[in-house]
Design goal:
Strand order of the largest sheet: 5-4-3-6-7-9-8
Mean pLDDT: 88
Protein name: Cyclopropane fatty-acyl-phospholipid synthase-like methyltransferase
GO molecular function: phosphoethanolamine N-methyltransferase activity; phosphopantetheine binding
InterPro entries: ACP-like_sf, Methyltransf_25, PKS_PP-bd, PP-bd_ACP, Ppantetheine_attach_site, SAM-dependent_MTases_sf
CATH topology of the largest domain: Rossmann fold
GO biological process, one term: methylation
CATH superfamily of the largest domain: Vaccinia Virus protein VP39
Number of strands: 9
Bound molecules: S-adenosylmethionine
Strand content: 15-25%
Radius of gyration: 21 Å
Number of domains: 2
Largest sheet: 7 strands, mixed
Helix content: 40-55%
Order of helices and strands: HHHHEEHHHEHEHEEHEHEHHE
Shape: globular
CATH architecture of the largest domain: 3-Layer(aba) Sandwich
CATH class of the largest domain: Alpha Beta
Low-confidence stretches: none
Catalytic activity: phosphoethanolamine + S-adenosyl-L-methionine = N-methylethanolamine phosphate + S-adenosyl-L-homocysteine + H(+)
Amino acid sequence: MTASTTDEYQRAAGAIAPIWAELLNTGDDRITPSTDFFAAGGHSLTAMLLVTRVATDLGKSVPLFALVENPTLAAFVEYVLRAEDATAVVEERAPDGSTTQTERLLGYNEPTRRENRNQRFEYYYANAISSAAHAEFCEQVYGRNLGQHGMADFGQIDRMLELLGAKEGDTILDLGCGYGLISQYIAEKTGANVVGVDLSASAIAYAQGLAESDDRLSFQVQDANDLTFPAGTFTHIVSIDTIYYAPSLRDLLRRFQEIGTADLRVGIVRTFPIRTFTADTWSPDRTELATLLRELFGGYDTVDLSREENAHWKKKVEVLDSLRGRFAAEGNEELFEFRYAEAAYEAGIEQYRYMFVSRTA
Ligand SMILES: C[S@@+](CC[C@H](N)C(=O)[O-])C[C@H]1O[C@@H](n2cnc3c(N)ncnc32)[C@H](O)[C@@H]1O
């Protein structure tokens, strides 16, 4: 008996076929064991979404090349059945130690996921800044075009700066700064010096152009997981939608303490997809991040941005729908797909989003 006649296969195929149908924009009944993902209209971005969905929905880690080598539904399902579990689980404790909640980590930092992601960021930063349609997209979604890739609008950034209380003479690290335009905004708003770091060479090349005309700014390509600044460099560290890419939050926050001054303040904005949690008992105070901020920094304040987050993705889809023709007229269909695929996926999941600002003990 082959694996494809077992109950296990039927169950996996029953879960995977509807995801194919959704991503290929077709009916469930059109997906058969011999359907070829790419022949049926799949491309690199939908393939990426598929492996992400397989990780989040089925808890299985499947590299992109597995789909290329196993493009039919039957072959892909067989591959998924043999694949490793994608998710590690962390048990999280309430401040009083009494209750736990479970977070399934999404395998963001497995080597294949990391490599794919870094390539996609590089593609994005090499192309987005020169697209007028993309500038219009950012203006409509965020209120102003700063080439944003994260989810924070100016309301969120301003609230973070208020809570952080940064001022002239301070030195702020903007971790995951992208094009550096948010770093520039932070410098203008606070008068502080801002050092931006990002893994993307294209992003930092653009950012270094900004620094040429503003002494308060400087930018470097650095990996968040290997920050090489001297001890005591920063009075503040901000990170918008980037800490997902640190395999060990504890190591990252410890490193923050080393490169920060004694009264370092940290502002982190991040999203928690609800599907990764036991949602009925979920609380930001029981997340791994909260636990570590209590342990290492003595506490934190939070701002609940969840409602804004869910509206944000829907708005992105709506704005992109209205700009599809503009992207196409520029020959920027791939950039459009890049943003659309992510927005359509995220708009379909409920998310928590919180800002955490540490309070030094
Ligand atoms: C979702 S974007 C957010 C960018 C920006 N903060 C914003 O809000 O628009 C995540 C950023 O993290 C950067 N990044 C990803 N992995 C990284 C790493 N290991 N070290 C430093 N930056 C990283 C990406 O290049 C990207 O610019």
